[in-house]
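User: I'm putting together notes for a lab meeting next week and I want to include a structural view of one of the chains we've been expressing. I don't have a solved structure, so I'd like a prediction I can at least talk through. The sequence is below, exactly as it appears in our construct file.
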Amino acid sequence: MADSVTSRPWGRNLRHALLAIPLLLVVSVLAACAGSSSAQSFGTPVAGQRVYDIARVLTASEIADIEQHASAVAQAGAPVIIYLRKQDSTTSATVNDAKALMDAWDVQSATGAHDGLVIFLNLKPSDPKHGSAALYAGAKHANASLPQAELQRIYNQVMLPHLRDGNIAASITAALDAAQHDLMNGAPVVPARTPFQQALAVVAGVPMLIGGVFLAVLGALLGLAAWRRQPRATEPPVATVEATQPDQTQPALVGALVSRHISLSQLLASIMSLASQGALNIESARGTFGRQVVNLHLAPDAPSVSGFEAQVFDMLRGVAESDGLITPGNLRSLPGRWRSLGQSLRAEMVARGWFDPQASQRRRPLYLYATASLVISIIAFVMAAVAAQPLGIVGALVLFASSILGYVIGGSLHETTVEGENAAQPWRAYAASLKGDAEGLRAANDADGLSSLLDHGVPYAVAAG
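Assistant: Thanks for the context. Below is the predicted structure for the 465-residue chain, given as structure tokens.
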């Protein structure tokens, strides 16, 4: 019983083995046929022919010219085949095609020489003037005159410009000439990178991109923190229905309060306020070549003015002519004199508790960051450009943009205190009411009402910007 038990599996295995033999033979034949088909997929080489234009994109004269250049390459020591066909393909696939052709057609001067060269082009069926190309050299030349780096250089610098123009024949002859030159003279010597250049190439790539993005994020967080620490009003906004002036605060102070900064707008508002009080007249006149100009004329019996407006009036008197006339030429000197007046206005705002005397300290970290980032971004950009590292250039540009943003945020941080923000609330409501009333009067075509509104409202509107 035991014998019968052991004999049955053995008999079954034998039958299976016998049945498998024909199957293996079939598979072997198919594989051989497939290999033969693959080897013969390029066609059959013709003795003495080096150019195979299966794509039919070259003229007879172009083929003859390429044959002459290929002959020169062969005489220089590299049997060469140029193969063109229509087939959509990638660059890596075309390289594999070139290697397969060299193996299938035994492109070498003798068995074991490994000195052949193949130029293979897969052209797009829909656009035969363009496609992918590859150069493949046998081991003898790949280890000497035609290394991979040199073949890539020939493709990038010699073939590709012609291929982009759709000039296939010129791209092939140029590549053959470059290969002949290398075979006769050796591949161009690429200077070895110094340790500094090697380190620069490493640092100026991904690390520089990561560093630039990190510093940019750091700057954004710094700006956000500074922005959120700004003093804010503790009292709710005032909602006024009528354009009622809250008090008699001079327009320049109101403008600094509402805009949160000192600017030339406050000087212009003070001049308009002086005009509304009769301290000066704003006159239209004809200037050179008949152009319309505006003159200021100080009133001989000017009413008494005080505070900051008295300082502005004294400044105007300092630039006026003997009869009190201030021409556009005289007005050009006002911005230069504004610095001292601006400091005086800021001092009054600080004295009232509306401006923070340490406001510049809140801007300083952002300005320091922006300046340092600007310098670093310029240095990084130069390093990445020298090392030809696009990622490093991107990192430098990100950091540069962050530095500019740092300056913008720093300049926008206001000077007002919590008390100043609270004091500005009714004036902001007043400015909004002025705008709404002016629009309503204009729509109603009420010229008298609009004129009355502008008489007392314009200096404050100008001061607030």
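A couple of points you could mention at the meeting. The longest helix spans residues 2-39. The radius of gyration is 43 Å.

User: Perfect, that's what I needed.
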